[in-house]
Design the sequence.
């Protein structure tokens, strides 16, 4: 069985304590789980085993995988910096399939629609399961019970925590690199498949037993400035193309044109201004969704109008964040991934556009991280319940269609604001109970909807500051009543309630199991 | 006893197999020792234990050390980037002494004359021993048997290897940082005590159980671009001054004016040109000594005259290396430490002046490192024997006066050249047997003296290439005969031959014991 020994965790969700044969810890509540023990320790390598001339290039990815000892049951990791233009991840499993290797675990930093072909390898047993964010087709496949193992969903920071802590041991990391040298030093800033940053791969580079760099732009040693260090790399593979440039980064990221979303953005920005959240020296993360980008534009204007400067803006970076930097209203972009071509250019050109690792920004098993130092974070959600708890992975119909991304990590900011519509396609966003519990309401401070703004009652400081505002403040119960009046009581989703139908678990930032996802009945 | 269970190692030196109570492995010959096991794994921290606002500043270094649990027998590490202007290292032991803490191990990345006051703590038992390069007064103190424990000398790369492999566990790393933020992010490029680079501290940051950053220039979060990552830092201490600027880096590094040394440099450069070692795309490390700098000037001229470009120059960086970069005859400076003010400026301003960690350049227990990719390395030595073996730590009188630095690491280059005088103060440099065996003759390719140039007979390729040269090629036996004729047979140095008088061991780059140093009799 994929999942065994179910218990009820601290937030009342029934979760397994054995997943894919390994023990896991149920969520204990915020700040309750204290890790013991030591970080994972990879084997000690020696220069004796690597070529003196530094040339680690081998003939093909198949050869590299064979030399790494690819075999049944191994865990293979990849990054998502090539986004929907990734030509490397699927190829790994094509090779594994040809070799007759079975029961692999794929641990991507995120999956994209381009990874849909992997469903056939989930079906035929080449891949046992995915541990990592998945969305769209792969998520749907998982929802209907197609995956042999139990999927494990982690936030970006949770992935780093799990690898660092040895919860997952990566046997082979395959790092697609827009530019690399034969020693394995690599960067995302240059080359025909430039994606700007490779920060999601740093943890894989550090902890994987074997590391393969795949590039379509080999340069003479040393590839500098480096993002990936060749000292951790076993083999380098040169291929024709690692990615489809126009799908790696969108040419432009675009602000929403929906009047409703524009209203959410305007109210969000006004709220931040009136509550004193936006100020000189502020640190913000607005995200790259259409609404978030619009919030960012408002922030840009407000900072400029007040003669203020944001101290930092967290990436994923976009043309709008780059404009803030280059317009002098922001000191630094701290960036984990580049979303558009302007962002890629900026990483290359601006020394204050900083290539940051997920370890630094998001890892909870670290001596502090950047999330709790960020003043304002703008996030989304598929559902929010009346206790402010949030869901980002499933829809109300039970289908697993999104990864967690940095959502759980960012909740730790000083003020987390969720601008969301009250309903989507007549499906309520505000619900009695979230279908999947991804983050505790204690960490969600403000919800902005087109029918009013809710401040979490725990934030008495914000409530005080907003007394007398012209913005429409309401309670979560007001919103719930309103959405029920509009949408009616939704049908019960066709989701199994059986433990044995658990298809995925959701990890919290500390590695504990906060909830699980059960099979959707067809 | 400090050292026990002596055996004869692969190069015939009698070495202990137990040092300071721990087992050590005798040198087995080049490329013979294959490490087993896993890297050291520090404890897993959690954000729960660190302030949400990221402010880790505490009132004093004493308070930080107490909070880190400073106690008897702990290992404390520091870096040497502040060189002879370091105001932090000694203070740590002043505090320990006041607290009555005993038997500490000091693991610096190097020691300088400014550390002489620590001898009193070696005498009174506050410090048990030094593990790391030491020179001048501390070395002399050790030579005469003053140190309670046995000193352990490692190369820069060997230090990284030892920490990574868990041979030494650092309890508390104290990182003096010219600029830092309250979270612990830090850089050496800015501030009144700017030293350019903090690359020697990266391994300490990664592996020490506790990390303290000490700065005299606190800036608001985030201190960017970072060299030290606050996610690994426990406490930040703000002091008036971490260093004496004029002693941190010399205002200028200077080429030798000695006619003899200028000749050595000229011949070395001519040799490199004639042997085809210097070419377009060459990688070089010339060092910062007076002779080496002069060699570098010749290389600069030759590259320019030929329209060639060096691919990289290894630091420690100086104004001369910076000139090569800025003059367009070098693509990259790969730098571990800045030796002068021009170098500090260049790290800050030139994006192709790369801040490199010792891990990347020198670690032998890595998947390859940069030393074997370097075409030409210019090094010194206190003694070279007729089998080309070298000594860099002791003089012929037995006194331990120098650290190993990067010397053992750099021996792995494609061509290692030692321009050395035949004798110094009538003491021969070419000897029958080196006083202390620091590096095997197989790795030393060319010796350039004022009485002739010797090519190691193993390098038949170089011998072939130099046929017909106008340079005075001689044999090592020629040189030995000549120096004996000039200096006469030297008196036997007053060095103990008793095992129990072992005062220091010399580690090879793979962590094995290549030789030891015995007490000098007064």
Sequence:
């Amino acid at each position: 069985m994929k999942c065994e020994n179910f218990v009820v965790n601290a937030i009342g969700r029934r979760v397994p304590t054995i997943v894919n044969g390994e023990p896991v810890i149920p969520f204990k509540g915020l700040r309750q789980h204290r890790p013991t023990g030591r970080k994972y320790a990879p084997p000690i390598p020696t220069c004796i085993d690597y070529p003196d001339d530094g040339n680690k290039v081998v003939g093909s990815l198949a050869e590299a995988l064979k030399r790494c000892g690819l075999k049944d049951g191994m865990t293979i990791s990849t990054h998502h910096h090539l986004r929907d233009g990734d030509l490397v991840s699927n190829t790994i499993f094509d090779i594994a399939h040809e070799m007759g290797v079975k029961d692999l675990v794929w641990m991507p930093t995120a999956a994209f629609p381009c990874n849909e072909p992997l469903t056939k390898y989930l079906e035929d047993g080449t891949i046992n399961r995915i541990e990592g964010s998945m969305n769209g087709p792969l998520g749907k496949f998982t929802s209907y019970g197609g995956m042999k193992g139990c999927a494990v969903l982690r936030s970006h920071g949770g992935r780093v925590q799990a690898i660092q802590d040895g919860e997952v041991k990566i046997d082979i990391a395959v790092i697609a690199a827009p530019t690399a040298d034969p020693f394995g030093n690599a960067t995302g800033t240059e080359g025909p498949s430039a994606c700007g940053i490779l920060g999601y791969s740093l943890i894989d580079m550090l902890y994987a037993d074997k590391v393969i760099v795949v590039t379509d732009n080999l340069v003479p040693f040393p590839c500098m400035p480096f993002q990936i260090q060749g000292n951790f790399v076993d083999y380098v593979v040169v291929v024709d193309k690692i990615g489809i440039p126009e799908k790696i980064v969108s040419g432009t990221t675009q602000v929403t044109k929906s009047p409703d979303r524009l209203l959410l953005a305007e109210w969000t920005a006004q709220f931040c201004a009136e509550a004193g959240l936006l100020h000189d020296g502020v640190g913000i993360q607005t995200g790259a969704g259409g609404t978030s980008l619009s919030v960012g534009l408002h922030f840009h204007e407000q900072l400029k109008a007040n003669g203020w400067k944001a101290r930092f803006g967290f990436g994923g970076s976009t043309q709008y964040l780059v404009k803030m930097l280059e317009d002098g209203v922001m000191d630094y972009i701290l960036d984990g991934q580049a979303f558009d071509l302007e962002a890629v250019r900026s990483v290359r050109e601006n020394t204050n556009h900083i290539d940051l690792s997920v370890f630094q920004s998001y890892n909870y098993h670290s001596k502090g991280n950047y999330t709790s130092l960020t003043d304002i974070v703008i996030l989304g959600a598929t559902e929010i319940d009346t206790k402010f708890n949030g869901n980002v992975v499933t829809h109300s119909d039970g289908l697993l269609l999104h990864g967690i991304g940095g959502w759980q990590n960012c909740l730790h900011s000083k003020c987390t604001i969720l601008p969301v519509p009250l309903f989507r396609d007549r499906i309520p966003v505000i619900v009695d109970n979230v279908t999947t519990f991804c983050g505790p309401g204690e960490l969600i401070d403000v919800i902005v909807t087109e029918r009013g703004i809710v401040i979490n009652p725990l934030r008495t400081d914000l409530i005080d500051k907003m007394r007398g505002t012209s913005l429409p403040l309401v309670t979560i119960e007001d919103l719930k009543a309103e959405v029920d009046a509009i949408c009616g009581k939704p049908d019960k989703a066709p989701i199994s309630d059986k433990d044995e139908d658990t298809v995925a678990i959701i990890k919290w930032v500390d590695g504990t199991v906060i909830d699980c996802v059960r099979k959707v009945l067809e």
Remarks:
- Chain A touches chain B through 63 residues (CB under 8 Å).
- Residues 51-131+168-248 of chain A form a domain with the Glutaconate Coenzyme A-transferase fold (CATH 3.40.1080.10).
